[in-house]
Description:
Elements: H1 6-13, H2 18-23, H3 29-34, E1 45-48, H4 55-67, E2 70-78, E3 93-101, H5 107-120, E4 125-129, H6 132-140, H7 147-162, E5 168-171, E6 193-196, H8 203-212, E7 219-221, H9 235-241, E8 248-252, E9 269-274, H10 284-292, E10 298-303, H11 317-321, E11 331-336, H12 341-346, H13 354-360, E12 369-372, H14 378-382, E13 394-397, H15 411-417, H16 420-427, E14 432-434, H17 449-453, H18 467-472
Helix pairs in contact: 5-7, 8-9
InterPro entries: F-box-like_dom_sf (IPR036047), F-box_dom (IPR001810), LRR_dom_sf (IPR032675)
Domain F-box: 1-44
Pfam families: F-box-like
Amino acid sequence: MEPLHDDVLLMVLEYVDVKDLLACRLVCKRLAELALHPQPWRHRLLRVHSILVGDAEARLTCPALRLAPCARRLVLQLPSKKCQLPYTSTRCAVSHLMLELNNITVCKQAAFVIRNQLALGRLRELNIWYPPGRLIMIEENASTESPQIKFGLSLLIHTLAEASGLKKLAVGSFPDRMFDVHSTVPITSSLKHFRCELRPKWQPFVDFVLAGHSATLEVVNLNGCWENSVSKSTSTARLLAAMANLRELSCPAVLDGIELVAKCSSLRKVTLHIRSNKPSDLVAGARKFLRRATQLREVSLEYHPGATSRDDPAVGLIRDLAWSGRSRVESLAIENGWRSRKERKDTDDNFPQEQSLLRALPALPALEHLHLQSQAPPQLLLALGPDTTPALRTLELGVYAMGFDVQHHCLHSWLHDNIIADDLLKVHPSIKLIPPPFEYYCSVPKDCTWCKSGCHQELSGNDRPLFRDALLKVCS
Length: 476
């Protein structure tokens, strides 16, 4: 080993597992020093008491955090029952920290964990959340929270709001509490990606982060609340509209003042989360936004729960997208999401957006990609042609759009039993049909007649580019 340069040994140690890497400290002085060098640790994933890891790996994580100089990612659950490592004082600097809080009493500790990592100067991505089941229990016991608990939660919120140096911040499920977020600490704009559920009580926090990082933010996701119950303040929309680098936005369609965001000239991709059966005045802003935002290139309209009537005001949002005739949208995705069993029985219209989409398509001359996640009627697919969609190049169909249940059918049988694909290719020969990312053949044992026959063996490898060729030569 003497002839080997330290750089070579460090490259080898990158492939040694954590247990053996720690053991190298006992071999000789040279390996002891190299085992604690940043290079063998910088790409490591360390997880403490996660349900995804066993006790053996979790036991190694604690000594690793005591000795290692750095790691790529740390997944940590608080409170930690088995490992008593002082996470608030570890010198192991991580670039990505994922915190799962299982108790509201650990907010103060979580705040100090984050502050410690920020002080180490390597943290660039932070994800923090409460498990949904725990969150329900916390909300039920909110009236009994002590001043210490409220202080800890407030400290954590301010720590997240004041964090500088991060590139990505994601705040998942969290207790619904009102906080007046203010800080005398200067915020250095650094965030490029920000995700947080937008609710009335959380709007001050969201606005604080958006304002502090307005110069660098590129992707903002304010989704998470399907009820779309946001406050009647246009402050969030005004902050979004003023951003110079915002490229992607995901938010509720009922965001107050959303029409103002159309002024953001850098915005290219938008996902609107739509709660169906809302009064027309609640989606009026979204209608104005889609009419004015002619700079958009990608638009996704996600209805949760799915719309059930063509008279639903939100269904007409597709027509608003093409209203001006100056749309430059190249990619359009529509998902008419889950509905209750009663709603499915009460209507035969699984895709009430059909007529709105057909009327909008001729006014979307730049549309190259159409993605339908919901069950689309055959007449809609057959209406796609050079006259209605001259620029269309790809049609991506979700499982329900293809009209079958993946538990009982396969894409191979769909090739033979569904005439839509063949007719579509005859009308629009240049179109590329993209199926869902599932295996083409039935799993063993073969369940369908066509898979038993053994034809189209080229599909058995789940190679999606071959799908169009298979469509063109369906065997009899």
